[in-house]
Amino acid sequence: MSIKQAMTRFGAVLGVALLLLGIVSVVELQAVKRVEKETEVALEAVRAVTLMDMHHEGIEGTVYHYLVALLEGDVQEQGSVRDALTQTIDDMQGLYQQLMDLPLSEQERQALRSLEGNLNHYYQTARRQVQAENQVAYQQGVDAFKEAFDTLETSLDQAGEAIEQAAKAQLEESAGSIALAEWVIILGILGVIGLAAWNLWKLWQFLSAQLGGEVAEVAGIARQITEGKLDMALDESRPGLYADLRTMQQKLRIQFEEVSRLRQALETVTTNVMVADEHFNIVYMNPAVTKMMQVAEEDIRTVFPDFRADDLLGKSIDLFHKNPAHQRAMLEKLQGTHKAQITLGGRHFDLTAAPVIGPGGERLGSVVEWADITDQLKVEKEIQALVDDASQGKLDTRLALEGKEGFALNLSTGLNTILDRMQAVFNDVQRTAEALAQGNLTVSIDAEYAGQYGAIANALNNAVDKLHHAMASIVTSTQNIRQSMQEIASGNAQLSERTEKQSSNLEETASSMEELASNVRNTAANAREANELAQTTRQKAELGGEVVQRTIASMEEINVASNKIAEIIDVIDD
Asked: Strand locations in 435-547, DSSP E?
């Protein structure tokens, strides 16, 4: 039997075996696809339930966000919160409908149907909360909303557990089906290999003296290896060149798998990676760095007009530098990681370069990690300006949110919120202090603030309140003093009137005394002239003397009283 006949028989037998193996493989692959489809349904259900749980918590955050807008009196923000709640509810309802449309088991459907009432109740309580017109109305519905939230959370957990258990069972079934298919295919392959080995053993007698097989066969194997077809099953018992080709194929397959894994990892990471060969030509760019270059292309072209982000592979890295010789010298001597920062047009980049070293220590090229820090530097400058303004007491500066995302957006939003609260506190303090300076003690801080802000507001309100009470006491005391002064003035007027009357009486008494003295003198003269009557009128004269003495004593007493009245008048005049 010639080599041709032997090869023909070998080919026919191997063809039939491969055909049978192909049929079995197709059947098993169909079964695997069916299992994969069922697995996809289970995973889609798990994903939808997970998203519903996230939206469920998102609605809670939206409702509490409405409370913040309500406290700040921001009507526009309240409307935005209502719109956001409506959108979240629509998304959640869409996810629920998507779940109900999936070909799930009856147990899973029953668990989902039990959700519907709790979902609708949760939506209703959430809508009612964001329709509250003031904080009191909002607080009245908080307990009902929390109860609806907790009830729905429990229902979601139960539904999620049911779906996860079903998904786990489906995955276990899938693993079993795939394992069975693998065994069937492996057994088929082993059968084909065994059959091929038997035929090859027959051929071995003809080819053992040669290069381990037919020249054309060996050449075909070598050609396929050069074309990158490294998944061929080669007989491990055959010697010669065939064995060498098999060893080379195995090593190349291992290397190819390693490279494929590394390439796949680089294709999926968000880090911007560029690789250059030992001649500094770009041989690889992952999607992340390609996208970054496309975004920055217009700015880079202001410095390098010929720059094309989609045409960098195969180009030299010299196009990024105005002094390529310096960069080449640095990379050629590079032993570890090197960090640098470059500016291209209006873009700023952080670069991290490292050498790529082969197994034998030879330099295979360089790898560079790019990071576009333009937005980061811009945000840093904006924040510094914001801090500078705030340190100078200028609290109306805000960070622009347009064009920001991720951490930069969250940081800018947070700083703006802090400044809004600080400005609100200082505005209230300024308004109250200005009113206080103008003597208006009826103005106070009505807004509710937390933490130190609340302590400042409460302290100022307490100070204004105490000052108000103190001024009220002063006014009352002043009124009492005014009334007392009026009473004193009235008393003085009455005393003055009585003093004047007393003075008039004294003048009348003095006049009477003068008349009496005149009478006495007349009487004495008459007494001298009528001496002859002295004896007869002696007794009457002595009685008149006693009267005179009593009168003089009365006049002295009146004089003493008059002096005291004069002293009282002097005191009153003083």
From this structure: none
Per-residue model confidence as pLDDT tens digits over 400-419: 878 777 777 888 888 888 88
**Residues near 111 by Cβ (< 8 Å), separated by ≥ 6?**
158, 159, 162, 163
The Cα 276–Cα 332 span in angstroms is 12
Taking each helix axis from N to C end, the angle separating 406-437 and 374-391, rounded to the nearest 10 degrees, works out to: 10
Domain ranges within the chain, ordered by starting residue = 3-207, 272-372, 382-437, 444-574
Model confidence pTM above 0.90 = no
3-state secondary structure 223-283: HHHHCCCCCCCCCCCCCHHHHHHHHHHHHHHHHHHHHHHHHHHHHHCCCEEEEEECCCEEE
What is the spatial distance between Cα 570 and Cα 559, in angstroms, rounded to a whole number?
16
What class is the 444-574 domain? mainly alpha
Own/partner long-range contacts of 21-28 (Cβ < 8 Å, ≥24 apart): 21/185, 21/188, 21/189, 21/191, 21/192, 24/184, 24/185, 24/188, 25/184, 25/185, 25/188, 28/180, 28/181, 28/184, 28/185
CATH label, 3-207, candidates 3.90.280.10, 1.20.120.1730, 2.60.120.260, 3.40.50.300: 1.20.120.1730
Backbone torsion region of residue 361, taken as left when φ is above 0, otherwise alpha when ψ lies between -120 and 50, otherwise beta: left
Q: Which helix (H) or strand (E) holds 285?
A: strand 282-285
SS3 percent helix, strand, coil of the chain, rounded to 5, is 75, 5, 15
Least confident among 184-193, 346-355, 362-371: 184-193
CATH topology of domain 272-372: Beta-Lactamase (3.30.450)
Neighbour count for residue 241 (Cβ, 10 Å): 17
Q: What is the DSSP string of 418-441?
A: HHHHHHHHHHHHHHHHHHHHTT--
Domains 272-372 and 444-574 share a fold: no
Which of helix, strand or coil describes residue 213?
A: coil
pLDDT of 88 reads: 93
